[in-house]
Predict the structure.
Amino acid sequence: MELWKQGAEAKIHKTDFYGKPCIVKERFSKSYRHPILDKSLTAQRVKSEIRAMLRCRMSGILTPTVYFVNMDSSCIYMEEMLDSVTVRDYIQSVQSSKTAVEAIETLTPLANTIGHTLGIMHKQNIVHGDLTTSNMLLQGDPSNNRLCLIDFGLSFFENLSEDKGVDLYVLERALISTHPNTEKLFNVILEAYCKSNDTGSKDVIAKLEEVRMRGRKRTMVG
Amino acid sequence: MAAKVIQCGPYPECNMTLMLFSNVLNAAEVRKCVMGGEFEAALLKTSMILEPFQVIVAANRAIHLHRIKKMMTKNVHSEVLFSLSPSKNISDSFRKFGLADNETSMFVVIVNDTDGSTCQAVIDRVKGQLTDITDVGKYSDLPTIQKVYKISETELSVCSAVDAVVSRISSKDIVTV
Ligand SMILES: Nc1ncnc2c1ncn2[C@@H]1O[C@H](COP(=O)(O)OP(=O)(O)OP(=O)(O)O)[C@@H](O)[C@H]1O
Ligand SMILES: [Mg+2]
C-alpha cells in the first residue's frame, strides 16, 4: 500500500481492492493518550465514520462506497473518488485565477450545493463534526457540483439545534480563515441550507448566532 | 470456462474460488453434499447477486472474521453466506441468500482450496454448465435485492445498486439499516 497523505489522526493510503481504486484510511494511536482510552476512541471514530457515510448516502448525499472495515487495525477501505479535487483546492484555484467579483460569481452555485447538501444532512440528524473545505470533494468537472462529503470520524447522530449550529459555525470559521473574502459565499450556503432543512433551520440559525456571539466574546476576553 | 481463483487483498496468503453454474439439474443433491460434509463450500442464490464484486466483498469480510476469530457462524463458508446478508439473523440470512433445492443456477464460493480438490469435487458433482461468473447479472432479481437491502430511489440517485449493496455488507456489524 502506498502512503498518500498523512493527517493528524490518520494515514491515507492508495491501493487496489479487487480491481477497484481504493483509499485506505488508517487511524493510528496517539502516544499521549492512555492506551485503553485511545483504543476505544479510535474504534468510536471508525464506527461513527462508517455509520454517517452510509446514512448520508441513504439520504441521497454522495459519500465514498465502503468496501471493507478492519476494526483490529482501524482501517476503512473505501472507494477512491476518482477525478476529484477538494473544495479547498478548487476555491483556491478559482480565487487565484479570477478577480474577486468573478470568483464569487463562479463559486456561488457550489455554495448553493454545499448549503443544500448540509441541509439534507442535518434534517437526517447527522452532525458532521469537522466541516472544512478539505472534507468536501468535487468529482468530475467542478462546475457540475457533484459534491462528495468525507471525513466523518467526528460525526454523531443528534437532533439538537445547538450541535447543528456549531457544525455550521465550524464551517464558517474554516471557510473564512482558509479562503479570504468568502463571507458572501457563506451567506449563500446558509440560504440554501434553510431551504433544504426546511423545518429545523430557524432554530439552527438562532443557535449559530449564539455561538458566533460566544466566539466573539471569547476573542475579546482572550 | 473455468473457476475463478482470486487472491484475498488484505490476506494475500488466502484466496477464494468463485464459480457460476447454469442449467443445474441437481441443486438439492449438491446442497446435501455440503450439509453432509462431503465438501465445504458456500452455495449462493444467484437471484440475490448483482455482480461478482458483491460476493467478493462478502467473502473478503468472512475471511477477515475467520482470521481474527470473530465469526458469527460455524465456518468460513457459512460466514460468506451470512456476510452477504444485511440481516443479523443467521437463519433468515441463509434462507434469503442460500441456494434452494429447486433452483437451476448456483454461485459457489470456496475459501482456500489450495490444491483445487474441492473445486474439482463440486464440478464433478454438479449436473450443470460452468459459466463465466460475470454472467451472474442475468439471474439477478433487482426488485427483491432492493427490498432485502432496503435500497431507496433516493440512494440510487447518488450511487449504483452494487455500491449500495456493498456498503451494507462491509458496514454490517456497525450499522443496522
Ligand atoms: N475516498 C477518497 N477519495 C479521494 N480522496 C480522498 C478520499 N478520502 C480522503 N481523500 C483525500 O485525503 C484527504 C484526507 O482524508 P480525510 O479528511 O478523510 O482524513 P484526515 O485524517 O481527516 O485528514 P486531515 O487531518 O487532513 O483532515 C482528503 O482531504 C482528501 O484529499
Ligand atoms: Mg480531513
